[in-house]
Amino acid sequence: MVPPTLGIEEARALVSRLSTRRVLVVGDVMLDEYVWGDAGRISPEAPVPVVEVSGCSVRLGGAANVARNVVSLGGKVHLLSVVGADDRAGKLREVLDEEGILPDGLVEDADRPTSLKTRIIAGRQQVVRVDRESRASLTGAVREEFDARLSDLLAGVDGVIVSDYGKGIVDLPFMERLIREARERDVPVAVDPKESHFHRYAGVSIVTPNANEAGGAARVAIVDEESLARAGRVLLSELGAEGVLITRGAEGMSLFRPDCPPVHIPATAREVFDVTGAGDTVVAAFTMARAAGGSMEAAAVLSNAAAGIVVGELGTACVSPEALLSAVGASPAGAA
What we know:
By secondary structure, the chain is of the alpha/beta class. It contains ten helices and 13 strands. The protein has helices at residues 8-16, 63-72, 87-98, 140-154, 172-184, 211-218, 225-239, 278-291, 296-310, 321-327; strands at 22-27, 29-42, 49-62, 76-84, 106-109, 116-122, 125-132, 159-163, 189-192, 206-207, 243-247, 253-256, 263-265. The strands form two sheets. It has a nine-stranded mixed sheet, sandwiched between helices. A four-stranded mixed sheet has the order 3-2-6-7. It starts with 7 loop residues before the first helix and ends in a 9-residue tail after the last helix.
């Protein structure tokens, strides 16, 4: 099968419309902390490298990084999530402001910490990751406030992205309410999922699992294109979705839709340094393209190109409209 492509004018027109789209991102926000250094020796205390720290940086992670990707692509974004009553929440708001993302959809919960993932990097190699977070479900007044803000923020958006990292925010009652209210407004819902509770996503427009997540959720060991196709069909049937986009790392992506043959899109990355946040980029680019009027195939091509850009950089990265056009072979209009 010949992989789908985007014509130059079609790509330019589609990307130009991204700036008119408004998306609600809902789910688990977190901070990604990177501690940089070099490891030139092994610790005498244990067989582990000693990293001599030379610097530290903090970036948006989880749903916050999805929102950052939407903004980077030129779209408008609302972010709905829950943070703790701690210093990390203050830092998160500070970084959101730097990225041009309004923090007005953040609900505070004094009983949970703001999620922080700390990665120790020696040279260009991640040595270890330390997670500080809660996976408890939302309850009481926090859940009531969260649900109320959902109804307010749904008004006037062109799409919804659910960024589910399994931290307790995206539970079944919430998903049922979101899907019901989004349908009433004719707003599509995309999910970057977790395999342990795929059943919660029944009725969404699109899910964008990686191959491991898709195989686990479909109860199919994905070892070749036949088993991949079987997993895609199972997920389409069980979720009642319009599409399933399975990301496959070095093998690209595969798009499945009811009553259509699978569409396989080869990977574009020349080198892979870090897949951190790649799923965030995929679901953001796909949803933005669909909201801008692109077909599922066109949205898949754009999201595949976007993924190819970010995995070539260390840490969570974003894609500009100009870089996206260049990646699909269509320079911005007027460019040399």
